[in-house]
Amino acid sequence: MNTQAMPSPASTVGAAPAATSTPCTYSIGRRLSLLLAMQTVIGLGVLLAGIYAVTHMLFVSKQDEELRAYSAVLMEVLREADAKGGEAEMRHKLEWLAERRPGTFVQVLRPDSSELYRDAAPTFNPQMAPTREQRFEIPRASGGAPLLGRLVIDCTRDAQHGRRMALLLVSAVLAGGALVGWGTFWRVRCSLRPLLDLAAQTKAIDARRLGQRISLAEPAEELQPVIDQFNGLMQRVERTYIQLEGFNADVAHELRTPLANLIGQTEVALSRERSVPELEETLHSNLEELQRMAAIVNDMLFLAQADRGVKARRGTPVAMAELVRQVVEFHEAPMEERGLKVDIEGDAHLPMDEPLVKRAVSNLLGNAIRYADAGSRLCVRIATEPDGGMRLWVENTGPAIEPEHLPRLFDRFFRADAARCEMEKPHHGLGLSIVAAIARMHDGFPAAESGGGTTRVGFSLNARPMGA
């Protein structure tokens, strides 16, 4: 038999969760300072490199000019010396000039490449020191072949100046980059102080201080949109939190009543011996309460799905007037009880989730039947929108709804006042919330109007889903 080792419960229960990698954070100030410092170093480096190149060209031009000038002097002096005394006079003049021009090296060759003159001991090493050289011809007074001259000048001082200048320019580049980096970091840190203030204000907000808003003593044009959006978000969060607290309280209140009835009836039934009919009556009563609780829970689950953005499934186009007639037939008994009649005006055809729309129309009719004047007529109006959608209204005559209550009419567990709620026919206050949810699932919206003894509550449906 092939067996495999199974991990023990202790080894799996105590296993450490897999490590999650978190993105590395960075400092905006440091990064910006580094980037600007690098840009400064590059910019100054290019600029000062250009300055150094121009300066080097000026040194070379000066050295070339010095070579040309001294070569011309040598040629003139040697030509005169040749005319006066020949090669001996020429050597004498060159020795005399060598004493007065340190930093130069002169060599004169005859046409046959034999050496006529060479400086004895130059003050620099022509092979090691930076030098500049120029060769020239010296015409002979006798008209023979010209002598060949070689002039070398010492450029050590210019090279030293160039090195000092290069060191100075490099130091200036580095100092400029460091100064710009430090200045940028300090400036950015000062400029980002409002963000730190906003972060501190945001940190202070919690569930006990949802009404707190963030602000700056000196509003910044770039940060104000973020502040406005955050404050708007906090306002929506606060409103949602208040609604959630109210919703939880309403749910607890709505479930407390049937639970109290169940507990009380069960305790009474168990207080003494009961006959079978009495126990059946108690069970029937408990079943009604359980069904009411189940209806509340189902409606809450449906609203939770709608809040998560679930969309209605579109079927084939449906005739809205025929769908309303089917719903009206379902409500015939309570309508006859109150002597109500229904008129259906208009029609529309569009794809929809038929069971959901029936439920919405049923909730609207039930709401209208509950609050309509006895013996009056209800009216269901169906109108086609220009974009192909549909709008449906259920109209009844009866007590008007106060204008301040209309915006909350579709909130969960909301009841305008006692005049709009019949205690002998209790309901859990989720009917119009479901209507609003079904409208949103069809990319529509609910609406309500009340005035002059007439109340109109309805919803709209889009012809096709958003983005289709």
Produce the secondary structure layout:
Blueprint: H1 9-13, H2 28-100, E1 104-109, E2 115-118, E3 131-138, E4 147-154, H3 156-191, H4 193-203, H5 224-271, H6 276-307, E5 317-319, H7 320-330, H8 332-338, E6 341-345, E7 349-351, H9 354-371, E8 377-384, E9 390-397, H10 431-441, E10 446-451, E11 454-461
Parallel strand pairs: 6-8
Antiparallel strand pairs: 1-2, 1-4, 3-4, 5-7, 8-9, 9-11, 10-11
Question: What keywords describe this structure?
Answer:
alpha+beta, Beta-Lactamase, Helix Hairpins, Heat Shock Protein 90, five-stranded mixed β-sheet, four-stranded antiparallel β-sheet, 10 helices, 11 strands, 54% helix, protein histidine kinase activity, cell membrane, two-component regulatory system, Sensor protein
How would you characterize this protein structure?
The chain is α+β, with helices and mostly antiparallel strands and 468 residues long. It folds into three domains: 28-178, Beta-Lactamase (2-Layer Sandwich), CATH 3.30.450; 224-305, Signal transduction histidine kinase, dimerisation/phosphotransfer (DHp) domain (Helix Hairpins, Orthogonal Bundle); 311-461, Heat Shock Protein 90, CATH 3.30.565. It is 54% helix and 14% strand. It is built from ten helices and eleven strands. The strands form three sheets. A five-stranded mixed sheet has the order 6-8-9-11-10. It has a four-stranded antiparallel sheet with strand order 2-1-4-3, covered by helices on one side. Helix 2 runs antiparallel to helix 3 (156-191) and helix 7 (320-330) packs across helix 9. The longest helix has 73 residues, at 28-100. It is rod-shaped. Mean pLDDT is 81; it is low at 1-19 and 418-425.
